[in-house]
Write a structure and sequence with these properties.
Chain A is of the alpha+beta class. The first copy, chain A, folds into 2 domains: 2-133, Jelly Rolls; 150-237, Arc Repressor Mutant, subunit A, CATH 1.10.10. In chain A, 39% of the residues lie in helices and 21% in strands. In chain A, helix 6 (191-198) crosses helix 7 (202-214). Chain A binds a DNA duplex through helix 7.
DNA sequence: CGATGCCTTGAGTGAATTCAACGCTTGTGG
DNA sequence: CCACAAGCGTTGAATTCACTCAAGGCATCG
């Protein structure tokens, strides 16, 4: 019974705020029951905390309940490449659980709360819940699709296009999981984060952002980026935008 | 019964030459039986042929039986980014089947033979064969891992490191599925392919290859690239190399 | 009030691109 | 059999893009 542990968790799956969003698919009672038992706890960490570490073995996988994180790899001399950002509903650590060692690290960009699942129960998920197994594969394929687009950006788009693409991407992802509140959304990251995602230097990222700001497409404010003209920004990027209907999550 | 259709196919699953390789995991009789029925046919195409087209819906997924292909995306003005190469045992088109529309195209780099599977039977795979469902997720996670490393290369490695990385990667992937034959393996691609994978111009790719050739690490020959000093090439790239044990395939 | 972190800017350098051309091979049609 | 075109690799020169270096401004925080 979820109530038995309600004191430990803040959020039982049955009352998961993410399920209320149109962005996610509906769960059957059976699926919800399994996921409730699959969930082993919650983890909350501060901005800047490291959640998963490259090269380690993690006994858990996580779903972002609230907050924002990012996935990155390092070269020996410290060069960093950010692969992707994790929004509410996103799964973290699946790679590590399936393939042994993690090949990337994850860090919190804001205070973040994660649902914790134990890898040991993953087997029974595949054996007894085909629909959830399908969802896991879907989630992995979706990450692949996102990485494809990032690769296209870094490899073939100009610095301006690339920056516009990344900001559009984050903006769209953020909107998809935002409550309908009309408040200004400021993307909470530093220019160093953008630089490390775009494959550009910090200085050149700054100058490129400036060009977008001069066109009134974005504004840098309160330690983050505010998108002023989402449509025009998307047009500059030459990207088609996210096309997702109701998506699954665990 | 496999015999009933033996006339149409060249390769029944039970005699699949890939299963003989140590590189792939063993299948149970039950799994083999299912996959045999899952396989709907074979497709052979010439070098340069397009196998899957971005933006379309494919009723099939494919496994490479022999030959080499590559996965790419195009921008409107023709700029091309190659995401990855497909070797024997690799699955193609899973993304399209799971998520509707394909977001990339696939082209044959050599004459290639593919096993054809129908998407309509994918459902029963998830419902009745948990181990194969797990494999599919594993395969998707592996592609993600490879893309992570490519992203790191394009974003943060120098042109020389990046080129050394890509050639090392292709060389290792090729070796993993090669019969033990000691023949010189020439990677059959043009410098334009490399350029479009590395995010470099054709001219600069040529000059970078030249630098590697001057160091006697590679040689350009017969319309392809021969790796002469794999260890040193790997060292130049700063990459750790593939670490795969027996991997699954469908 | 001196650190520290982050954004900003200019100047100089280096890397990668575009442009242009040439050589070699292969294939094709007269 | 030759002429010609097409594809691919190679090279040099000029240009543009992005990087490094260096410094300064402006907050925040102990």
């Amino acid at each position: 019974m979820p109530d038995a542990v309600a004191g430990k968790w803040h959020t039982p799956c049955a009352k998961c705020p993410l399920r209320a969003l149109k962005h996610f698919r509906e769960f059957s009672a059976d699926e919800l029951d399994f996921v409730s038992r699959f969930k082993a706890g919650e983890l909350s960490v501060e901005r800047g905390a490291t959640i998963l570490v490259e090269g380690t073995h993690s006994p858990h996988i996580y779903t972002v309940l609230s907050g924002l994180g990012f996935r990155y790899k390092l070269l020996e001399d410290g060069r960093r490449q950010i692969m992707n950002y994790a929004f509410p509903g996103d799964l973290l650590g699946l790679q590590g659980v399936l393939m042994g060692e993690l090949d990337h690290s994850v860090e919190a960009l804001t205070p973040i709360t994660l649902c914790v699942f134990e890898r040991s129960k993953l087997e029974s998920l595949f054996e007894r819940h085909a629909s959830l197994a399908y969802d896991l594969t879907w989630i992995a394929a979706r990450e692949e699709r996102i990485l494809d687009e990032h690769l296209l950006s870094i490899g073939r788009r100009s610095a301006l296009e690339r920056t516009a693409y990344l900001l559009s991407y984050i903006h769209q992802r953020g909107n998809a999981v935002a409550g309908s509140g009309g408040a200004k959304k400021i993307i909470p990251l530093t220019q160093q984060h953008l630089a490390d995602t775009l494959g550009l230097s910090l200085v050149h990222t700054n100058k490129t952002l400036r060009r977008l700001a001069e066109r009134r497409l974005i504004r840098w404010q309160d330690g983050g980026c505010e998108v002023l003209e989402a449509d025009e920004l998307l047009r500059v990027s030459g990207w088609e935008g996210l096309k997702e209907t109701a998506r699954p999550f665990i």
